[in-house]
Amino acid sequence: MSRRLHIEVFRYNPLDPNSEPHMQSFYVNEYDSMTLFIALNIIRDEQDPTLQFDFCCRAGICGSCGMVINGRPGLACHTQTRDLPDHIVLHPLPVFKLIGDLSVDTGTWFRDAGARIEAWVHNDHEQFDPKAEEVRMENDLANEIFELDRCIECGCCVSACGTARMREDFLGATSIARVARFYLDPRDERNEENYYQVIGNDQGVFGCMGLLGCEDVCPKHIPLQDQLGIMRRMLAIHSVKGILPKRVLEKLQHKGCCHESH
Ligand code: SF4
Ligand code: SF4
Ligand code: FES
Question: Could you identify which of 5, 63, 109, 204 might form a hypothetical disulfide with 154, taking C-beta atoms 3.0 to 4.6 angstroms apart as the criterion?
Protein backbone atom coordinates (compact mmCIF):
# COMPACT_ATOMS: atom_id res chain seq x y z
CA MET A 1 0.00 0.00 0.00
CA SER A 2 1.39 3.38 -0.94
CA ARG A 3 2.30 5.84 1.77
CA ARG A 4 0.89 9.28 2.34
CA LEU A 5 3.90 11.56 2.63
CA HIS A 6 3.97 14.48 5.00
CA ILE A 7 6.28 17.04 3.39
CA GLU A 8 7.19 19.99 5.59
CA VAL A 9 8.70 22.86 3.64
CA PHE A 10 10.49 26.03 4.74
CA ARG A 11 8.62 29.07 3.42
CA TYR A 12 9.92 32.61 3.24
CA ASN A 13 9.97 35.29 0.58
CA PRO A 14 12.70 37.83 1.40
CA LEU A 15 11.22 40.26 -1.14
CA ASP A 16 7.86 40.38 0.63
CA PRO A 17 7.94 42.58 3.76
CA ASN A 18 4.92 40.68 5.13
CA SER A 19 6.57 37.29 4.78
CA GLU A 20 7.83 35.54 7.95
CA PRO A 21 10.03 32.42 7.88
CA HIS A 22 7.90 29.41 8.81
CA MET A 23 7.35 25.73 8.00
CA GLN A 24 4.35 24.61 5.97
CA SER A 25 2.98 21.07 5.73
CA PHE A 26 1.84 19.42 2.51
CA TYR A 27 0.54 15.88 1.97
CA VAL A 28 1.17 13.81 -1.16
CA ASN A 29 0.36 10.22 -2.09
CA GLU A 30 3.55 8.35 -2.89
CA TYR A 31 3.88 6.13 -5.93
CA ASP A 32 6.59 3.85 -7.33
CA SER A 33 9.82 5.55 -8.38
CA MET A 34 8.67 8.90 -7.08
CA THR A 35 11.48 11.39 -6.59
CA LEU A 36 11.37 14.33 -4.26
CA PHE A 37 11.46 16.54 -7.32
CA ILE A 38 8.22 14.94 -8.57
CA ALA A 39 6.58 15.31 -5.17
CA LEU A 40 7.45 19.02 -5.10
CA ASN A 41 6.05 19.47 -8.60
CA ILE A 42 2.80 17.79 -7.55
CA ILE A 43 2.58 20.21 -4.62
CA ARG A 44 3.24 23.18 -6.85
CA ASP A 45 0.83 22.02 -9.57
CA GLU A 46 -2.01 20.92 -7.32
CA GLN A 47 -1.69 22.67 -3.98
CA ASP A 48 0.40 25.84 -4.00
CA PRO A 49 1.67 27.49 -7.20
CA THR A 50 3.73 30.00 -5.17
CA LEU A 51 6.14 27.35 -3.86
CA GLN A 52 9.66 28.23 -5.00
CA PHE A 53 12.32 25.61 -5.78
CA ASP A 54 14.74 25.19 -8.69
CA PHE A 55 15.22 22.50 -11.28
CA CYS A 56 16.22 22.23 -14.89
CA CYS A 57 17.51 18.82 -16.00
CA ARG A 58 15.73 16.42 -13.59
CA ALA A 59 18.70 14.09 -14.09
CA GLY A 60 21.43 15.18 -11.65
CA ILE A 61 23.23 17.20 -14.28
CA CYS A 62 22.36 20.88 -13.88
CA GLY A 63 22.91 21.13 -10.12
CA SER A 64 19.86 23.37 -9.58
CA CYS A 65 17.76 21.29 -7.22
CA GLY A 66 20.06 21.13 -4.19
CA MET A 67 18.26 21.46 -0.85
CA VAL A 68 18.53 20.18 2.70
CA ILE A 69 16.53 16.96 2.91
CA ASN A 70 15.89 15.79 6.46
CA GLY A 71 18.99 17.64 7.57
CA ARG A 72 21.30 16.50 4.77
CA PRO A 73 22.13 18.43 1.58
CA GLY A 74 21.16 16.54 -1.58
CA LEU A 75 19.56 16.78 -5.01
CA ALA A 76 15.76 16.59 -5.07
CA CYS A 77 15.77 14.96 -8.50
CA HIS A 78 18.21 12.28 -7.36
CA THR A 79 16.35 11.44 -4.17
CA GLN A 80 13.76 8.68 -4.24
CA THR A 81 11.02 9.22 -1.68
CA ARG A 82 11.09 5.47 -0.88
CA ASP A 83 14.53 6.04 0.65
CA LEU A 84 13.09 8.60 3.08
CA PRO A 85 10.69 8.27 6.02
CA ASP A 86 7.10 9.38 5.41
CA HIS A 87 7.79 12.67 7.19
CA ILE A 88 10.15 14.72 5.03
CA VAL A 89 11.49 18.10 6.14
CA LEU A 90 12.96 20.44 3.51
CA HIS A 91 15.08 23.56 3.97
CA PRO A 92 17.03 25.69 1.49
CA LEU A 93 20.79 25.18 1.29
CA PRO A 94 22.53 27.37 3.86
CA VAL A 95 25.55 29.58 2.95
CA PHE A 96 23.92 30.75 -0.31
CA LYS A 97 21.68 33.77 -0.69
CA LEU A 98 18.03 32.83 -0.29
CA ILE A 99 15.82 33.68 -3.25
CA GLY A 100 12.67 32.25 -1.69
CA ASP A 101 11.44 29.03 -0.01
CA LEU A 102 13.82 26.29 -1.26
CA SER A 103 15.44 28.37 -3.99
CA VAL A 104 18.95 29.78 -3.44
CA ASP A 105 21.45 31.67 -5.58
CA THR A 106 24.39 29.31 -6.04
CA GLY A 107 25.45 31.03 -9.28
CA THR A 108 26.83 34.17 -7.66
CA TRP A 109 28.78 32.12 -5.09
CA PHE A 110 30.37 29.89 -7.76
CA ARG A 111 31.13 32.82 -10.06
CA ASP A 112 32.88 34.63 -7.23
CA ALA A 113 34.82 31.50 -6.18
CA GLY A 114 35.83 30.84 -9.81
CA ALA A 115 37.17 34.40 -10.11
CA ARG A 116 39.08 34.13 -6.81
CA ILE A 117 40.84 30.90 -7.75
CA GLU A 118 41.31 32.13 -11.35
CA ALA A 119 39.66 29.04 -12.74
CA TRP A 120 41.09 29.15 -16.22
CA VAL A 121 44.23 27.82 -17.91
CA HIS A 122 47.07 30.30 -17.40
CA ASN A 123 49.88 30.41 -19.94
CA ASP A 124 52.03 32.92 -21.73
CA HIS A 125 50.99 32.04 -25.27
CA GLU A 126 50.14 35.35 -26.81
CA GLN A 127 47.38 34.29 -29.09
CA PHE A 128 45.15 31.28 -29.48
CA ASP A 129 45.48 29.88 -33.00
CA PRO A 130 42.24 28.06 -33.86
CA LYS A 131 43.92 26.48 -36.92
CA ALA A 132 46.84 24.96 -35.03
CA GLU A 133 46.82 21.23 -34.39
CA GLU A 134 45.68 20.36 -30.88
CA VAL A 135 48.37 19.24 -28.50
CA ARG A 136 47.79 15.64 -27.49
CA MET A 137 47.29 14.68 -23.87
CA GLU A 138 47.76 11.20 -22.44
CA ASN A 139 44.42 9.46 -21.91
CA ASP A 140 45.12 8.68 -18.27
CA LEU A 141 45.88 12.30 -17.53
CA ALA A 142 42.83 13.51 -19.47
CA ASN A 143 40.69 11.10 -17.44
CA GLU A 144 42.20 12.34 -14.17
CA ILE A 145 41.39 15.94 -15.13
CA PHE A 146 37.89 14.95 -16.26
CA GLU A 147 37.30 13.26 -12.91
CA LEU A 148 37.73 16.63 -11.20
CA ASP A 149 35.82 18.51 -13.87
CA ARG A 150 32.55 16.68 -13.17
CA CYS A 151 31.34 19.14 -10.53
CA ILE A 152 27.81 20.34 -11.32
CA GLU A 153 28.05 23.28 -8.89
CA CYS A 154 25.06 22.10 -6.89
CA GLY A 155 26.45 23.61 -3.68
CA CYS A 156 25.72 20.56 -1.49
CA CYS A 157 29.35 20.24 -0.34
CA VAL A 158 29.48 23.93 0.56
CA SER A 159 26.28 23.70 2.59
CA ALA A 160 27.53 20.63 4.44
CA CYS A 161 30.81 22.34 5.34
CA GLY A 162 31.20 23.61 8.90
CA THR A 163 33.90 26.08 7.87
CA ALA A 164 31.83 27.53 5.02
CA ARG A 165 28.93 28.02 7.39
CA MET A 166 31.12 29.91 9.87
CA ARG A 167 33.04 32.06 7.44
CA GLU A 168 31.61 33.25 4.19
CA ASP A 169 35.02 33.80 2.53
CA PHE A 170 35.91 30.07 2.67
CA LEU A 171 36.37 28.67 -0.83
CA GLY A 172 35.14 25.18 -0.01
CA ALA A 173 36.21 21.76 -1.19
CA THR A 174 34.70 22.28 -4.64
CA SER A 175 37.01 25.25 -5.36
CA ILE A 176 40.06 23.41 -4.03
CA ALA A 177 39.27 20.41 -6.25
CA ARG A 178 38.96 22.87 -9.13
CA VAL A 179 42.43 24.25 -8.41
CA ALA A 180 43.71 20.66 -8.27
CA ARG A 181 42.25 20.18 -11.74
CA PHE A 182 44.38 23.08 -13.09
CA TYR A 183 47.40 21.89 -11.11
CA LEU A 184 47.13 18.59 -13.00
CA ASP A 185 46.71 20.26 -16.37
CA PRO A 186 50.07 20.59 -18.18
CA ARG A 187 48.69 23.51 -20.19
CA ASP A 188 48.40 25.58 -17.01
CA GLU A 189 51.81 27.15 -16.41
CA ARG A 190 51.17 28.39 -12.87
CA ASN A 191 53.79 27.30 -10.37
CA GLU A 192 53.40 26.30 -6.73
CA GLU A 193 53.91 29.86 -5.55
CA ASN A 194 51.05 31.01 -7.82
CA TYR A 195 48.74 28.36 -6.36
CA TYR A 196 49.90 29.27 -2.87
CA GLN A 197 48.76 32.83 -3.45
CA VAL A 198 45.31 31.55 -4.40
CA ILE A 199 44.54 28.85 -1.81
CA GLY A 200 47.47 28.76 0.64
CA ASN A 201 45.50 30.51 3.39
CA ASP A 202 42.52 30.21 5.74
CA GLN A 203 40.09 30.89 2.92
CA GLY A 204 41.60 27.89 1.13
CA VAL A 205 43.23 24.65 2.22
CA PHE A 206 44.31 25.79 5.68
CA GLY A 207 40.76 26.72 6.71
CA CYS A 208 39.47 23.18 6.12
CA MET A 209 38.82 21.15 9.27
CA GLY A 210 38.96 17.86 7.37
CA LEU A 211 35.74 16.38 8.76
CA LEU A 212 34.63 15.00 5.37
CA GLY A 213 31.14 16.51 5.34
CA CYS A 214 31.74 17.72 1.78
CA GLU A 215 32.65 14.39 0.22
CA ASP A 216 29.87 12.57 2.10
CA VAL A 217 27.15 14.58 0.37
CA CYS A 218 28.62 15.08 -3.11
CA PRO A 219 26.08 13.57 -5.54
CA LYS A 220 28.78 13.13 -8.19
CA HIS A 221 31.15 11.33 -5.78
CA ILE A 222 34.04 13.62 -6.60
CA PRO A 223 37.11 12.63 -4.52
CA LEU A 224 37.16 15.93 -2.64
CA GLN A 225 39.16 14.69 0.32
CA ASP A 226 41.98 13.30 -1.79
CA GLN A 227 42.33 16.62 -3.54
CA LEU A 228 42.19 18.58 -0.30
CA GLY A 229 44.97 16.37 1.08
CA ILE A 230 47.11 16.60 -2.07
CA MET A 231 46.80 20.38 -2.32
CA ARG A 232 47.34 20.91 1.40
CA ARG A 233 50.52 18.83 1.43
CA MET A 234 51.81 20.41 -1.78
CA LEU A 235 51.32 23.92 -0.34
CA ALA A 236 52.65 22.98 3.10
CA ILE A 237 55.81 21.59 1.52
CA HIS A 238 56.10 24.70 -0.63
CA SER A 239 55.87 26.92 2.44
CA VAL A 240 58.76 25.16 4.22
CA LYS A 241 60.95 24.65 1.17
CA GLY A 242 63.59 27.10 2.32
CA ILE A 243 63.59 25.72 5.88
CA LEU A 244 63.57 21.92 5.72
CA PRO A 245 66.70 20.04 4.59
CA LYS A 246 66.49 18.84 0.97
CA ARG A 247 66.60 15.20 2.07
CA VAL A 248 63.48 15.59 4.23
CA LEU A 249 61.65 17.42 1.46
CA GLU A 250 62.42 14.66 -1.03
CA LYS A 251 61.10 12.08 1.40
CA LEU A 252 57.86 14.01 1.82
CA GLN A 253 57.45 14.47 -1.92
CA HIS A 254 57.80 10.74 -2.46
CA LYS A 255 55.00 10.04 -0.02
CA GLY A 256 52.35 10.98 -2.57
CA CYS A 257 52.36 14.63 -1.55
CA CYS A 258 52.12 15.96 -5.06
CA HIS A 259 50.60 15.02 -8.38
CA GLU A 260 53.29 13.39 -10.49
CA SER A 261 53.19 16.04 -13.21
CA HIS A 262 54.58 18.82 -11.01
S1 SF4 B 1 36.54 18.54 4.97
FE2 SF4 B 1 37.02 20.75 4.82
S3 SF4 B 1 35.96 21.47 2.98
FE4 SF4 B 1 35.09 19.42 3.53
S5 SF4 B 1 33.29 19.88 4.79
FE6 SF4 B 1 35.01 19.62 6.20
S7 SF4 B 1 35.87 21.70 6.51
FE8 SF4 B 1 34.55 21.78 4.70
S1 SF4 C 1 31.85 19.03 -5.60
FE2 SF4 C 1 30.01 17.72 -5.60
S3 SF4 C 1 28.71 18.53 -3.97
FE4 SF4 C 1 30.24 20.08 -4.41
S5 SF4 C 1 29.26 21.46 -5.86
FE6 SF4 C 1 30.40 19.94 -7.06
S7 SF4 C 1 28.97 18.28 -7.48
FE8 SF4 C 1 28.03 19.55 -5.87
S1 FES D 1 17.13 19.20 -11.65
FE2 FES D 1 19.16 19.25 -12.46
S3 FES D 1 20.33 18.32 -10.88
FE4 FES D 1 18.31 18.13 -10.16
Answer: 63
